[in-house]
Design goal:
alpha/beta; Carbamate kinase; VC0802-like; globular; binds aspartic acid
C-alpha cells in the first residue's frame, strides 16, 4: 500500500489533474492520495494558499476582499471547467468559503488557519469528485473524521501521537482515499495548520499511520539534485539518499522537501520516493534508512543565507561553570532560537537566523553579555551563509574536510567558521554572502567533478 502526495504545482490546472489521475490509476497500490491546494501554473502565478492568506487578512482588517475572493473562486472554477465536471462544486466552495470568512475573528491566528486550510480541503473535495467522475472509486476523507489530531499551535501544529492509531483505520476503506494536506484538528475540534508546505507532513503522517510500504511525493522535478541548479549547470541527480542526509540538506535550503516532513515516515522506516508528476516514469530520488556508500563521501551540497553570528570571547571561559547556559539564557529571554554553537577554549560563537533581531535588540544583547557575563569581547557579524556538505560516506573517508577547505582556499573563499563533528554526516562552513556562489561551485567541483588524486 502506498501513500501518494501531490504538491501544488501538480494540481494547479485541469491538465495537471489529468496527469495525477493517470498516475493514480496506473498503480492499484496507490491507496491514499494527499493533496495540496492549487499552486502556481507559471512562475509569476500566485498560490491559492497565498491568496487565501491575503483574503483573510483583508477580512481581519475590515478591508474590501471581493477581488481576491473572486480570484480564488476563479482558480477552482477554471480547473472544474477544464475537467468538465459539474459546476455545482464551485458553488459549494464559494458558499463554504464565504461562511468561513464571515466566522469568528476573536482569535485572528485561528481564523487565519481555518481559512488557509480551506485551500487543501476544497481541492481534496474537487479532486475526489473528478476521480469519481472518471470512474474511480474515490472518497474525500476529512482529517477530523480520520482522527488526525494536532497540537494547539496555529501555523505550526505538531501531530499528536494518538493520530497514528486512528489513521490506521483508513486501510479498511474500499476505494481510494483523497485526503487534504496541511492541517489537522485539535482536541476541541478546531482546525490548525502545519507550517508552510505542510502537506508533505500530512503525507508522511499518513504513510506512518497506515503503515504504507512507500511514500511517494510527487513534485515538479525529476529528482533531488546534488546542488542548487542555479549555482551549477546540470548538477548530478541523487538516486538514493538517507533520511539523515535529506534532513541536513533540506535544513540548509534544499527546498524539494519540507525538512520536518520526513520524521513520521522515518520513524516507521517507510522509504520515500520523490517523483515528477510531469515525468512519472523517471525513477526519482529514494530516501531510505540506509544506503550503500559506494559513491564517495559527499552526496549533496546545500547553502542557506540570512544568518548572523554572536562571537563571545572571555579569557578562561573553559573553567567557568555555567557560562554557556547563561549565554543561551540571555537569548532565551528574548525568545530567540539559535542554530549552532561552535566553541573554542576561550570563545564561543552562536549562530542565529538574523531576521529574528533588529539593531536595538542586538545592542541590548551585546550589552547584557558584556555586563552580566563579564565577557572580554562581543562581536555580531551579519550576512553569513551556511554551506552544508553532506554525505554518510564521510564517516569512513579520511580527509574530506581537508579537501573541502582546500577547494575553498583555491577559490579564494574566506571561511568564517567551520563546524564539523557533531553530525557524522555533514560539515558546515560559514562564509560571507557574496562568496556563496563561488564557494558552492568550488565544493561541487571538488566532490563531483574533479577526480581526486
Ligand atoms: N498549500 C500550503 C502552502 O502553500 C501547503 C502545501 O502546499 O504543502 O504552504
Amino acid at each position: 500500500m502506498k501513500v501518494v502526495k501531490f504538491g501544488g504545482s501538480s494540481l494547479a490546472s485541469g491538465e495537471q489533474l489529468k496527469k495525477v489521475l493517470n498516475i493514480v490509476v496506473s498503480d492499484p497500490t496507490r491507496k491514499v492520495v494527499v493533496v495540496s491546494a492549487p499552486g502556481k501554473r507559471y512562475s509569476d502565478d500566485i498560490k491559492v494558499t497565498d491568496l487565501l492568506i491575503e483574503c483573510a487578512e483583508k477580512y481581519l482588517a475590515n478591508e474590501n476582499a471581493e477581488g481576491v475572493f473572486q480570484t480564488i473562486i476563479e482558480r477552482y472554477a477554471s480547473i472544474v471547467k477544464e475537467l468538465s465536471i459539474p459546476l455545482d462544486i464551485v458553488e459549494t466552495i464559494s458558499k463554504d468559503l464565504k461562511a468561513l470568512l464571515a466566522g469568528d475573528k476573536s482569535k485572528p491566528e485561528s481564523y487565519l488557519d481555518a481559512v488557509k486550510a480551506s485551500g487543501e480541503d476544497n481541492n481534496a473535495k474537487l479532486i475526489a469528485a473528478f476521480f469519481r467522475h472518471s470512474g474511480l472509486n474515490a472518497e474525500y476523507v476529512n482529517p477530523k473524521d480520520a482522527g488526525l489530531l494536532v497540537s494547539d499551535e496555529p501555523g505550526n501544529a505538531q501531530v499528536l501521537p494518538e493520530s497514528y492509531e486512528n489513521l490506521f483505520k483508513l486501510r479498511e476503506k474500499e476505494g481510494i482515499v483523497v485526503f487534504p494536506g496541511f492541517f489537522g484538528y485539535n482536541k476541541k475540534g478546531e482546525v490548525l495548520t502545519f507550517s508552510r508546505s505542510g502537506s508533505d507532513i500530512t503525507g508522511s503522517i499518513l504513510a506512518n499511520g497506515i503503515k504504507a510500504d512507500l511514500y511517494e511525493n510527487f513534485t515538479d522535478v525529476d529528482a533531488v539534485y546534488s546542488v542548487n541548479p542555479t549555482f551549477v549547470q546540470n548538477p548530478k541527480e541523487i538516486s538514493e539518499l538517507t533520511y539523515r542526509e535529506m534532513r541536513e540538506l533540506s535544513y540548509a535550503g534544499f527546498s524539494v522537501f519540507h525538512d520536518e516532513a520526513l520524521i513520521p515516515a522515518f520513524r516507521a522506516g517507510i522509504p520515500v520516493n520523490v517523483k515528477n508528476t510531469n515525468n512519472p516514469s523517471a525513477p526519482g530520488t529514494r530516501i531510505v534508512n540506509e544506503r550503500s556508500n559506494s559513491n564517495g563521501p559527499v552526496i549533496g551540497i546545500a547553502s542557506d543565507k540570512g544568518f548572523c553570528s554572536i562571537y563571545v570571547s572571555k579569557y578562561l571561559m573553559n573553567r567557568e561553570i555555567g557560562f554557556g547556559r547563561k549565554l543561551l539564557q540571555i537569548l532565551e529571554d528574548y525568545g530567540l532560537t539559535y542554530e549552532h554553537v561552535p566553541s573554542g577554549i576561550d570563545d564561543v560563537t552562536v549562530i542565529l537566523r538574523q531576521d529574528q533581531m533588529d539593531e536595538a535588540l542586538e545592542a541590548q544583547i551585546k550589552d547584557r553579555i558584556m555586563t552580566e557575563l563579564h565577557a572580554d569581547e562581543v562581536i555580531i557579524e551579519h550576512d553569513l551563509v551556511l554551506i552544508m556538505v553532506v554525505g554518510e560516506g564521510m564517516r569512513h573517508n579520511v580527509g574530506t574536510t581537508a579537501r573541502a577547505a582546500k577547494a575553498l582556499a583555491h577559490a579564494d573563499v574566506n571561511i568564517e567558521m567551520i563546524n564539523q563533528g557533531s553530525s557524522e554526516v555533514s560539515m558546515m562552513f560559514g562564509v560571507k554572502e557574496p562568496q556563496e556562489k563561488s564557494a558552492v561551485q568550488a565544493l561541487y567541483n571538488e566532490f563531483f567533478v574533479a577526480v581526486p588524486v
